[in-house]
Design brief:
Elements lengths: L1 H7 L2 H32 L5 H34 L8 H14 L1
């Protein structure tokens, strides 16, 4: 998929793939920060300052995840509004994610 895109894709396809990659990256990063905040919360040993930092980490990771999905829907909506032939949907993102994880 990525190789085909680089060899013969249009600029719109490249932009759509870059947006999909950024959503994948933001989702994985948010998941890692949620896990990090949960571990920090467990290891806080009742210290109020550490608990506050851990809950803020989890809170901001969830906010970042929500913002990235809102951005995805806004880009999809604006592309439909302006009749830009963006082929960007969740199945494209899932297929791209599967290809990335197979390459690892």
């Amino acid at each position: 998929m990525i190789r085909d895109l680089l060899e013969g894709g249009s600029i719109i396809d490249v932009v759509a793939t870059l947006i999909a990659l950024s959503i994948i990256f933001a989702s994985i990063l948010s998941l890692l920060f949620i896990i990090w905040g949960g571990i920090s919360f467990i290891l806080s040993a009742g210290d109020d300052e550490k608990i506050k930092k851990a809950t803020n980490t989890i809170r901001y990771a969830i906010i970042g995840l929500v913002i990235s999905f809102i951005a995805f829907f806004l880009v999809s909506w604006i592309s439909r509004l302006l009749d830009i032939p963006f082929d960007l949907n969740f199945s494209t993102i899932v297929a791209l994610m599967q290809e990335i994880f197979r390459a690892l």
